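chain below, 260 aa
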Amino acid sequence: MDPLEPLVKALHSEGRLRVWSLVITVFGDLVQYRGGVITTGQLGEILGRVGVEPGTLRTALSRLARDGWVESERDGRISRYRLTPEGVAEFAPATSRIYAAPQREPVKRWAVTVRLGPNGSPEIRLLPSEAKDDGSDLRIDGTLSGMSPAYRAALLPDDRRAALGALARDLANLQVVPKDPLDAAAARMLLIHRWRRIVLRWPDIAPELMPDDAPLTDPRADVAAAYRRLSPKAERWLGLDWGSETAHRAAMGRFGGLDL
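prediction:
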């Protein structure tokens, strides 16, 4: 059985595939810390493994170049792509969010923050005190003495619950690491592609606040664990020995350090 079949089927069953977005995921997960350059052959190999046709990839690359995200250079018959300086600048904040470390200790102190929207309507959030404040207009720090099931449920609306359910199914299909390095690299790419779409749309929910029936209690920790399992084999696809100092330096900033 194809070890990627459930993941690939899920990828293509969620409406029209945005291949340009998948290319951005490849750059973030496999390219940027390797010098930032990838050939069209390498892109075609990993995206072809998940069912992307060569013509569709060419169209996506043309769009990304037109929109100022990527630039290309030719060396004989080989084309190489890299993010533009503008693309790198846009990329950095998202990368920090995607690969942030999981929560390591139970939360003891909390912050209630209020941020006023354009029309003056308040957006209220409850988050760990040590979490970075993103420019709130009001903040109260203290301990949490109670929370109703209704409040917990409100933190996980239907669309977010569905996204976490899809992530949970992917994680269940990634318990066994594929034997082939290309398969492992493609699996890691698909994992991060789904995680990226979740984490850039919604802020993290502390595990203590998750509803009891949530698909995942601590999705960031679960993604980090799967990433650790996949990485040694995945890194070999582009020829990086996971036991090398270079590989560990590259990994240290991801999910708090992959060798921890």
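The chain has a mean pLDDT of 89. The longest helix spans residues 181-199.
thats it, cya
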